[in-house]
Write a structure and sequence with these properties.
This is Signal recognition particle receptor FtsY. It is a peripheral membrane protein. This protein is of the alpha/beta class and about 300 residues long. The protein has 12 helices and 8 strands. An 8-stranded mixed sheet has the order 3-2-4-1-5-6-7-8, sandwiched between helices. Helix 6 runs parallel beside helix 7. The longest helix is centred in the first third of the chain and has 19 residues. The protein binds guanosine-5'-diphosphate. Guanosine-5'-diphosphate (GDP) binds next to helix 6. The site of guanosine-5'-diphosphate has 18 residues, from helix 6.
């Protein structure tokens, strides 16, 4: 219900465009497929994934000889759910915190402004509500505002935070955080990192160093690298995914701001192109506005 509300913009726009594409048509022909292609591309599904979807539908049209436009919704839905299933197996995708003595370390990456800090705050809230001890590490030391923002979220969610002054070494903050997590027997560690993309080599070096230093305390850390992308930025989100996956191994995605965009298709395209599961979607600014990604609900919210 909240998902539907959060995704209203994506849904209504995709749907109205779809209806226009099939208006006055009784069967799926080349023109309908061309229009559908436009709808998918303009919904930010991305060209490569759009072509994949169109090809699959063309195959089905060729096989079945005749396809009514009323069947198109159903088939499109199946194909999109099928694509998402390739990277998002299972019903719900949330990050699982194992019941071990070692804290589960989640390193959160993404460029400034995408909603990284907000997502960390929302995650801290969710993990805490499920009975986990959470600790935050303010390793984005390049902006004072980043440290302050994370501090605000720590207070709001009532979880401890490890920080140093602005300009200090991010790896040193990360080290302190995991060390203190082990000492406090924390279950989950959320490490914020700096999201400067202007220098790819530096980004890679920095993330590698943060990882290496954490591994001195917990050899298999980080257990999860969560890339946060702003779902309203379309092609920029694709570009960021490209750069971050080149800089470090990304294990999961959170796509934010899907409440404010008519372009939720980015979720489908990025998940398909990078073969990384989408685990969370952000649908607002509040602490509760982070949803565990459910591919069936997501697809349904487009086609209901
Ligand atoms: P960071 O620089 O990546 O850490 O970004 P912030 O977490 O500070 O978020 C930047 C802005 O986006 C803030 O105003 C947030 O309230 C807002 N924001 C974050 N996530 C969402 C979301 O899912 N929906 C909406 N509407 N706003 C969001």
């Amino acid at each position: 219900e909240t998902l539907d509300k959060g995704l209203e913009k994506s849904k209504s726009s995709f749907f109205s465009k779809m209806s226009k594409a099939v208006a006055g048509k009784s069967r799926v022909d080349d023109e309908v497929l061309d229009d559908l292609e436009d709808v998918l591309v303009s919904s930010d599904v991305g060209v490569a994934t759009t072509i994949k979807i169109i090809n699959r539908i063309e195959d089905r049209v060729a096989r079945d000889k005749y396809m009514g436009t009323d069947e198109l919704n159903k088939i499109l839905r199946e194909e999109i759910a099928g694509l998402l299933s390739e990277t998002n197996s299972g019903e719900a995708a949330e990050i699982q915190i194992p019941n071990t003595a070692t804290p589960h370390v989640i390193m959160v990456v993404g460029v400034n402004g995408v909603g990284k800090t907000t997502t960390i705050g929302k995650l801290a809230h969710q993990f805490k509500n499920s009975g986990k001890n959470v600790i935050l590490g303010a390793a984005d030391t390049f902006r004072a505002a980043a440290i302050d923002q994370l501090q605000i979220w720590a207070e709001r969610t009532d979880v401890p935070i490890v920080k140093q002054s602005m300009g200090s070494d991010p790896a040193s903050v990360a080290f302190d955080t995991v060390q203190s997590a082990v000492k406090q027997k924390a279950d989950v560690v959320l490490i914020d990192t700096a999201g400067r993309l202007h220098n790819k080599i530096n980004l890679m070096k920095e993330l590698t160093k943060v990882k290496r230093v954490m591994q001195k305390v917990i050899p298999d850390a980080p257990h999860e690298v969560l890339l946060v992308l702003d779902g309203s930025t379309g092609q920029n989100a694709f570009e960021q995914a490209k750069q971050f996956t080149a800089a470090t191994e990304v294990t999961s995605l959170a796509v934010t701001k899907l409440d404010g965009t008519a372009k939720g298709g980015v979720v489908i395209g990025i998940s398909d192109q990078f073969q990384i599961p989408v685990k969370y979607i952000g649908v607002g600014e509040g602490v509760e506005d982070l949803q565990v990604f459910n591919k069936y609900e997501f697809v349904d919210s487009f086609f209901k």
